Amino acid sequence: MNKVQFPVAAGIAATLAIGILSYLDSLTHTGLWLMAPFGATAVLVFGLPDSPLAKAKNVIAGHFLTALIGVFFVEFIGVYPWSLAFATGLAITTMLLTRTTHPPAGANPMLIMLTGQSWPFLITPVLIGASAIVCLGLVLNKVREAYLKAA
Length: 151
Description:
Elements: H1 5-28, H2 37-47, H3 56-77, H4 81-98, H5 108-115, H6 123-150
Helix pairs in contact: 1-2, 1-6, 2-6, 3-4, 3-5, 3-6, 4-5
């Protein structure tokens, strides 16, 4: 792919990923298929697929671990200025220690705490949404590799 084709393909893939999640959200009327950090995840997965930050492990585990921290704080500690800060710092530390760093996931504790999410949020949107984005990213990368081999 040339310098124009790859960004266009990445944009199309991001559109499909967010579009699918948005469509599922509208079908279920739950508001639980999308979360703002997925927009930044799409930048990494589709726009910078070779980045370590875009690896499947980083995307899925990074989102899950940081979301788990956010829900834990909502359920057991409460939402205060100090707890928002502490949960975010703990999330970053956890990603770094587990080698699952995914910068968009750093926003999860704040998002979850400020909106009062609970345990089901870990499944949808976090695990299902992150997994869907990763799967579409894998497809885009396979298509890109095939195109490069054929060129």
